[in-house]
Write the structure tokens for this entry.
Amino acid sequence: MTDLNTFWAARINWFNSDGREQSIKDYIDLANQLIWKRQASFLAAAILAAFYFNPLSIFAFYGIVALTEMLDLLLGRQSKAWNGQDPVVGQQILKRIAINTAVSAIAISVFIVNIALQQTSPGHFTPLFFLFSASVFAAMYNSQMKGILLLRLLIYAFAFLYIAFLDVVRYLPPISSDIWLEFFTIFFVLYFTGDISVKFYLSHKQRLAQMKMINEENERTKAALEVKSRFLATVSHELRTPLTSIIGSLELIKNDRLGVLPETLKPVFSIATRNGHRLATLIDDLLDLQQIEAGAMVFHFEPINANDLVQEAVESIAGYASKLGIQVMSDPCIEDCQINGDRNRLIQVMSNLLSNALKFSDEGGAVKVRVETQGARIRILVHDEGSGIPEGAKDCVFGKFSQVDSSDIRKVGGTGLGLNIAKQIVERHNAIIDYVSEPGVGSTFYIEFDRQTGGDDPSAKIKPLATAA
Ligand code: ADP
């Protein structure tokens, strides 16, 4: 028994010298896919042959072929659950593939040789063509494992030579006879079959190598992303904590809490505080982005009144708006306008939309916020009369670190992260965020949610926004 196992281990190494479980898996998968196609060809060949030769013997040998095919079917079914990783199971499967291949190739050869034996006139186009088709089929679809393919082709080669020799032995013809011509032609066919088998085998190997490369590249990219994510989280945390205390101290000094600050120093401290806040916003955005990418952003969903949400966001931005000399007006919805969402995250989204609207407006302009409902949907709109956004810039507007005007001379600052984060937050609410805009006229950004309760017609869709008005 041990000897037998050693024998098999050696055979298996030879059969599958690439050592790739993937090849076995590919072989089985393909065999499973092609099983009925093969059955159909064998049955068609048997019916054709039965019409011209002794049907009893034709169907008897076809029956044996079909039985060997059942073995393949069984093996395919049993191996389906194998994940292609465990080498011990792989070896067992390989052992059975080798046995099935030998049995099936012999059965097919005998089936075809039987046809040749029944032909009484010289020339065996039909059985030779059947054999040739079986060889090409094997070359095309068994190329994953060169040992298995070789085994099948060797058995077919014996059948080829046997059929070729039949007439030579039967008629002992002179060398100038067509029988010898046919005999020599068979060597061309054998060479051709071997050649295409090598080609298919090499292209399979190439595909495997490419897959391996892609997998390795994928793993490297994943590892790099992981490192980047950890780096971002560490740096941001290490910056955020000291920055909070720096900003706090600057605020105390600027507001004369630690003693009266000389007038000459006040502008310096104001600039320092402002820049501290900008830095803090950038770090917060980076932290949010990192959390979203790591799937670690936590959401606390609760019923929220959209009017309240807008009110809170408008109040929080009021100081900034008056500093820029821009009026912010809100137009609440008179109907019930409950949505389900994370209050803080939605305030963050609204603040981003509002601060953009203010940033890109001119002094003296107006920003309008409106809540509207239609059927089962609620839409919050933030409209400005600012610079507007050129057509085709959507990817840039919602992209990471991207701005429509990224030139050094742009008037307004920013990280190009806010709307990307907003979009990801909104999408976690199963809501949509979008805009309509016209350069020089203004922009309307909007978020559209499912309404929590109410609505006369729940199937009604809110009508699409056509203009920035
Ligand atoms: P930023 O920090 O640069 O504002 P955002 O992600 O919030 O980043 O916005 C991305 C870009 O989209 C902005 O740089 C700007 O080019 C464009 N944008 C966003 N809102 C408006 C708006 N209301 N009017 C004009 N352009 C806008």
The pocket of adenosine-5'-diphosphate is lined by residues 352, 356-357, 360, 384, 386-387, 389, 397, 403-405, 414-420, 443 (CB under 6 Å).
